[in-house]
Amino acid sequence: MTLWRSPAKEALWRDEFSVLAADERYVSRRQFAKFLTLASLGMFAGNLWILLKARFRTAPVFAPATVARLGEIPVGEVKLFAYPAPQDRCILIRTAENDYAAYSQKCTHLSCAVYYEKETGRLACPCHNGFFSVKDGSVLQGPPPRPLPRILLEERGQELIATGVEGR
Questions:
Q1: Residue 52: what are its φ and ψ, rounded to 5°?
Q2: Total structural domains in the chain?
Q3: Considering the domain boundaries, does residue 145 fall inside one?
Q4: Residues 69, 50 share a domain
Q5: What CATH number has the domain bearing residue 78?
Q6: ∠ CA(91), CA(96), CA(98), 5° rounding?
Q7: What is the pLDDT of residues 20-52, one digit of tens each?
Q8: HSE on the CB side for 56, CA within 13 Å?
Q9: Which of 22, 90, 142, 143 is most open to solvent, judged by the fewest CB atoms within 10 Å of its CB?
């Protein structure tokens, strides 16, 4: 079997696969309906999975963890720590002699790391000029859609203990 005929005739494969370029772009109603049906079924299955996962999700259990010792951090300074898991970075700020505040260090806009601005007394996100209040973690300015998750602290003797996360 030869793949080429004489130069006057076209190649053999063109006879066997006679697909015209104009017909390649054509989509029949049946093909379009199949695509829409499969896409809809895929989206339905994905939404069903999300619903079931949310329905049977258990509340997270936060184990208490020592964050710092009282007086370890000077007033107006910060300490970085991880809570509740090693990949969850947090920031502890000593705002006054006996006042401490701790928040997740992950901005609620695009997860950039926030830092404490001592001069202005607020938490800043350098990515898009987002600012958060040190008092309650609320959004002061910028694109962040919600406040920073607050780390709940307890004083036990001379130690600050993280006991949970509020607003997660």
A1: -65, -40
A2: 2
A3: yes
A4: no
A5: 2.102.10.10
A6: 95
A7: 666 667 788 999 999 999 999 999 999 999 999
A8: 5
A9: 22
